[in-house]
Design goal:
Helix content is 13%, strand content 37%. By secondary structure, the protein is mainly beta.
Length: 78
């Protein structure tokens, strides 16, 4: 059974924040445009597995690499 699970792929996403902007503004954006989010760099992030929330975490920066440290599993996933 465990052998079968090792071949299952899961898409992991991390939500840093959200923003709502008018479509015309989005269409005018080019390379280097900045979209302001409703969160600060110290706020917890939401970790999604296949678009389903599974945990909360925090951003970790080590040199030129960015990662996420899991702080809490959400109800139903622990």
């Amino acid at each position: 059974m465990l052998n079968n699970l090792q071949n299952v792929k899961v898409e992991i996403s991390v939500v840093l924040g959200r923003s709502v902007i008018p479509m015309h503004q989005l269409l005018r954006m080019g390379r280097g445009a900045v979209i302001e989010l409703d969160a600060s760099q110290d706020d917890p992030v939401l970790i999604l597995a296949n678009d389903k929330p599974v945990a909360r975490g925090e951003i970790i920066i080590q040199g030129d690499r960015i990662g996420v440290s899991v702080l809490e599993l959400l109800k139903g996933y622990n």
